[in-house]
Amino acid sequence: MIVRVTSRPQSSMEELLVLNAGLRAEIAQVRAESAATIAELVGLVEVLRGEVEELKRQIGANSRNSSKPPSSDGLVKPAPKSLRGTSGRKPGRPRGGPGVSLDLVDDPDRVVVHRPVACSCCGLGLRGGVPVAVERRQVVDLPPVTVRVTEHRIVSRRCRCGVVSAGIAPGYAAKTVQYGPRLTGIGVYLYHGQFLSRARAAEAVRDLFGVGTLAASTIGLMVKRVVAPLSGFLEVVRGQVAAGPVAFADETGFRTASTMAWLHSASNPWFSLFTVHRRRGREAMDAAGVLPGFTGIAVHDAWAPYDTYGQAVHALCNAHLVRELVAVAESGRPVEQTAWAQAAIDVVLLLKKAVDRALADTVPGELVEVDTLGFYTEKLRAIAAYGIEATAERQGPVGAKHHALARRIHDRLADYVRYAHHPELCFFDNNPAEREIRMPKLRIKVSGCMRTMAGAQQFAAIRSYTATARKHGMGTLDVLIQAAEGRPWMPQPNAVS
């Protein structure tokens, strides 16, 4: 078998050069497209990395490293990690402190004598036996409680001149049949004072006092009756907070009528004002009527709308600051980007200790000596400057937050250390405002939401009334009964307790 081998014609040098140039162009195009694709993927990775980091931050946020309330921690509570340190005091009542116990009274309401009838040994009667000793035992208890119906009869009489005049009944007896002010006050106390649901508050009143006809809807009518005469009281409180030397301001979500509303608080050591509004910012604060004319020291958490009130002196909350710094320190970023946060926490707490020591010494004037305050202030300023530099790249949303925090500390350091100049207002944080809104948050936790805006505003009015009354040493139930009678308790103008 014969195989013939034929050879392909060889390409000329010119053809090879053309082919080589074409291949080079294709390779360059592929490289350019690959580079663009890689750059796009790198950018996408950075975006996704930032989103993942932000989601991890949100998941890791709790009441210890953010402004979230403890109720939001759920069943997985964060491990305790107090920044206060140990005080050295043992648990229990301090030695020498006043104790509380039941003591015998000299004039009991009722005396029951238990005499032996027969000898416990031989059985002989002891009717004529001589008393040897008397042991006193007292039981403090409530008598059986039931409602009492009082009938008010309004008599009308005709005068000789022909005019008929009628007697005047109390204002709380305006209808043919109604519940009295004490029962009304108790119903509102259980509902908005102890945060039972309306149904459970009605059930408690029925069980405690045998009022079988009281329905859950009646509790709502009782609330309206207590709120009706409080308009004058609320105006007094609003004026007193606005004219005071300090105002603690805060706001929190207050779900109402299936949508988000906001509960705003403005308070000082003697007065508390709560308002509810659909908005969170300046519009709601203006409607509350405190900050627009306030010229004292406004303590808040550095939320931007508060700073729009330029006529006030601003003091920023150190408790919020420490929580924000804890979040930075625990963010999991490289230590060179987060070490400044822990250093700032240490300085803030050292300054607080210095202020506490000065306050304990009751030295008039400045709480902390100028040299001491200047030392801590400059140290904190230097730490913040380092934090600005360490977070300058602003890597992702979390990095931007960290940079903004360092910048805020540096630029508003005077507002953070302002409490060191005011011995009557130490420690200058926003905890008083947070304590004000903690119980209203419990209202939402129990009820889920307020059904109507009117109901939310009624709750805010009652909370303003009872919180202010407690600050003046008044009992919550007592002042609710007074309001149900149509004569609400009123604080004295410029009262300071």
What do you see in this structure?
By secondary structure, the protein is of the alpha/beta class. Helix content is 46%, strand content 7%. It has helices spanning 13-60, 181-193, 198-209, 216-227, 231-242, 282-288, 318-329, 335-360, 370-390, 396-411, 413-416, 431-447, 453-471, 476-484, and strands at 156-158, 164-166, 246-253, 262-267, 272-277, 297-300, 313-316. It has a five-stranded mixed β-sheet, sandwiched between helices. Helix 2 crosses helix 14 (476-484), helix 7 (318-329) packs antiparallel against helix 8 and helix 8 (335-360) runs antiparallel to helix 9 (370-390). The radius of gyration is 36 Å and the shape is elongated.
Based on Cα principal axes, name the global outline. elongated
Termini separation comes to 125 Å
H/E element sequence: HEEHHHHEEEHEEHHHHHHHH
The fraction of residues assigned to DSSP E strands is: 5-15%
> Percentage of helical residues?
40-55%
Indicate the low-confidence ranges by residue numbers.
none
Number of strands: 7
Count the DSSP helices.
14
Tell me the structural class: alpha/beta
* Mean of residue pLDDT values: 86
Please outline the major beta sheet. Answer: 5 strands, mixed
Radius of gyration of CA atoms, rounded to a whole number: 36 Å
With strands numbered from the N-terminus, the spatial order across the biggest sheet is 5-4-3-6-7
